[in-house]
């Protein structure tokens, strides 16, 4: 899918802006139907603020990924079903972006946190009375809101209330320190100005608070992906997003993925299937014990994030490194479906 968005904004304060944004999302899915049942696997490439140049091999190695997709899928169809239990889990950025989106991005929308979205996808456990005190995750956790991210899906020069794009802390050293704001609600947390999060998906809708690019910072001196794998004695690697669920407080959740690789003594020994990880938001992020270095960082994101009534759709990016989480609860999705 390719989108070119052109928007002109003017207000009675004298602000007048004209902006054009482009974004693209490309996915290729392989499907296997046979004696071992039905399995599928998608490419891991993420949507981004590029034009048609995204389809070349300059920004993403399409040739390599498409070439290995049939082999990976064939291996997945023959792989064993996961034994449920607690494992160390290395979550690849192609999966972790969605966990960020659901458990941090939506949870730190101030309008949701004060109850404005209660009738559509719920509220948030991260309420304003917890600002500057809530231990959201481990001390390794640093999350920012940023409307200036290069090639970000939520990147603009000015938001839809004429506020200039900016960057700010949402979670610092594991503690909740900020929210996403527009002019309408900034005063609810004693801020004297918006941080530029107003967006309307069409002239037919009023601007509301929408996500900036919400990203987890890499560890500047953190390990490479291969070093992270080598450090695991007994664990699972999860790549790619698939299905998920999260409660109306953005607290209890479950996520699956596209690829699940078993690690023993620092070596990948094969794939698994039927894997889901389940946790509460603070337990999961509190268990983050290794944050990858800059070489593991990938900008992922959602092309069509829904919010509000009447419904509006917005695109948003979430950058993150690979990260290792300690003793995460792993479910077998087939066994769970039979309960």
From TrEMBL:
Gene Ontology MF terms: metallopeptidase activity
Similarity section: Belongs to the peptidase U62 family.
One Pfam family named in its UniProt record: PmbA_TldD_3rd
GO cellular component, one term: cytosol
InterPro entries: Metalloprtase-TldD/E_C, Peptidase_U62_metallo, TldD/PmbA_sf
Designated name of the protein: Unannotated protein
GO biological process assignments: proteolysis
Domain annotation Metalloprotease TldD/E C-terminal: ranges: 84-330
SUPFAM superfamilies: Putative modulator of DNA gyrase, PmbA/TldD
Gene source species: freshwater metagenome
